[in-house]
Amino acid sequence: MSWTDLYRQKLVSADEAVKVIKSGDWVEYGEFAGQVQDLDKALAKRKDELKDVKVRAVTRAAAIEVVKADPTGEHFTYVNWHFSGLDRKLHDQGLCYFSPILFREVPRYYRENQQVDVTMITVTPMDKHGYFNYGLNNAGTRASLDKASKIIVEVNENMPRVLGGNEECIHISEVDFVVEGSNWAIPALPVAKISETDEKIAKMIVNELEDGCCIQLGIGGMPNAVGKLIAQSDLKNLGVHTEMFVDAYMDMYLAGRVTGLNKNIDKGKMVFTFAMGSKNLYDFMDNNPVCASYPVDYTNVPHIIAQNDKVTSINNCIEIDLFGQVCSESAGIRQISGTGGQVDFFEGAYLSKGGKAFCCFTASYKDKQGNLKSRINPLLTSGAIVTTPRTVVQYVVTENGIVNLKGKSTWERAEALISLAHPDFHEQLAKDAEKMGIWRKSNKK
């Protein structure tokens, strides 16, 4: 039997495919921009037939129909490992639950800890060898497929074919059902706006970069600003080893800044585990051999990251306290995003020969009432999650400067962090530090 014959044998409608899902099942929807949509709509239609179906996803980029069909959560429970803006709103309404993770550990969670009854993923059309490519998402996909009792693929002609790397495809012989989807447009992530403050901070970071360094950028306006400035710089032979692949990498590559020739592993390749960005980015990645998709237990393992020299990790945070504890995922108890790979890359960069890890943010912000608030506080907001422990943090950057916390005592940390705060908060922060016993008399100016 040819691969095409086997394909035809397994080809069914979305409505037919989701009949395999039973009450009580755990169902994987895939990850990021490549999560299933037609299968989601088909499963939503089965609401009244099912009870206690748990749907798990990562950073949903499109409306989720099972939640819309069941706003009371009597039939479907939606669980997510890293919130998008959409997931955050659902969480605020009690319609989405969060699972804390270290991103590098996700494949092991699947293999050792998770129940997976059905995995449904979006894929490219099958090639002549019988393989479907995952496209923009790798991360924990292979592990979820290996653990699943049933596998359904939703074919989308708009999904770019992204080369490996490793674990970037699945063979028709492993698949239970094939669904030819409606070829919905792959969700594009708007390029984050760059503020004047973002650009000021980005300039300080770019001044710290060297020819041949290996770049990891997080999500948001600040890392995007760094990428934009790198593209406009005269830096040479930069490398890329990251978790999230965004437009900034394409811009740096097309500007001639990225060659990967100085990398010790995956030389000449831009390595990542998932991508979200513009349609231009997806077109750039399609069948492009310079891009290499890997599972997250390769891209995010600190000792693998550190095999490249001069790894430079650039990430945002929400707030930091005077001990150096970083919150990058919640506003108090309100979950905003997730731990993601920040800890992975801060550790990996520091272990790298000549590596640097930057935690960057604006020193202050205005709340809804227009009041000025500091992002540098004596203690983290009550209920805030410690994303990165104080022991892991290296460089901290605001528009007011840059400090290195490694090796510093508690009073040295407090002094350094206060210097980065908005001037309006310096005096009160010093008083708070004194009350907390992390301020020397000689600190007082």
Automatic annotation (TrEMBL):
<dbReference type="Pfam" id="PF02550">
    <property type="entry name" value="AcetylCoA_hydro"/>
</dbReference>
<comment type="function">
    <text>Coenzyme A-transferase that converts butyrate to butyryl-CoA.</text>
</comment>
<keyword id="KW-0808">Transferase</keyword>
<feature type="domain" description="Acetyl-CoA hydrolase/transferase C-terminal">
    <location>
        <begin position="277"/>
        <end position="433"/>
    </location>
</feature>
<dbReference type="InterPro" id="IPR003702">
    <property type="entry name" value="ActCoA_hydro_N"/>
</dbReference>
<dbReference type="GO" id="GO:0006083">
    <property type="term" value="P:acetate metabolic process"/>
</dbReference>
<dbReference type="InterPro" id="IPR038460">
    <property type="entry name" value="AcetylCoA_hyd_C_sf"/>
</dbReference>
<dbReference type="GO" id="GO:0019605">
    <property type="term" value="P:butyrate metabolic process"/>
</dbReference>
<dbReference type="InterPro" id="IPR026888">
    <property type="entry name" value="AcetylCoA_hyd_C"/>
</dbReference>
<comment type="similarity">
    <text>Belongs to the acetyl-CoA hydrolase/transferase family.</text>
</comment>
<feature type="binding site">
    <location>
        <position position="341"/>
    </location>
    <ligand>
        <name>CoA</name>
    </ligand>
</feature>
<feature type="active site" description="5-glutamyl coenzyme A thioester intermediate">
    <location>
        <position position="243"/>
    </location>
</feature>
<comment type="pathway">
    <text>Lipid metabolism; butanoate metabolism.</text>
</comment>
<keyword id="KW-0443">Lipid metabolism</keyword>
<feature type="binding site">
    <location>
        <position position="318"/>
    </location>
    <ligand>
        <name>CoA</name>
    </ligand>
</feature>
<feature type="binding site">
    <location>
        <begin position="218"/>
        <end position="222"/>
    </location>
    <ligand>
        <name>CoA</name>
    </ligand>
</feature>
<keyword id="KW-0378">Hydrolase</keyword>
<dbReference type="InterPro" id="IPR046433">
    <property type="entry name" value="ActCoA_hydro"/>
</dbReference>
<keyword id="KW-0276">Fatty acid metabolism</keyword>
<dbReference type="Pfam" id="PF13336">
    <property type="entry name" value="AcetylCoA_hyd_C"/>
</dbReference>
<dbReference type="InterPro" id="IPR023990">
    <property type="entry name" value="Butryl-CoA_acetate_CoA_Tfrase"/>
</dbReference>
<dbReference type="GO" id="GO:0006084">
    <property type="term" value="P:acetyl-CoA metabolic process"/>
</dbReference>
<keyword id="KW-0963">Cytoplasm</keyword>
<dbReference type="GO" id="GO:0008775">
    <property type="term" value="F:acetate CoA-transferase activity"/>
</dbReference>
<dbReference type="GO" id="GO:0016787">
    <property type="term" value="F:hydrolase activity"/>
</dbReference>
<protein>
    <recommendedName>
        <fullName>Probable butyrate:acetyl-CoA coenzyme A-transferase</fullName>
        <ecNumber>2.8.3.-</ecNumber>
    </recommendedName>
</protein>
<dbReference type="GO" id="GO:0005737">
    <property type="term" value="C:cytoplasm"/>
</dbReference>
<feature type="domain" description="Acetyl-CoA hydrolase/transferase N-terminal">
    <location>
        <begin position="7"/>
        <end position="188"/>
    </location>
</feature>
<dbReference type="InterPro" id="IPR037171">
    <property type="entry name" value="NagB/RpiA_transferase-like"/>
</dbReference>
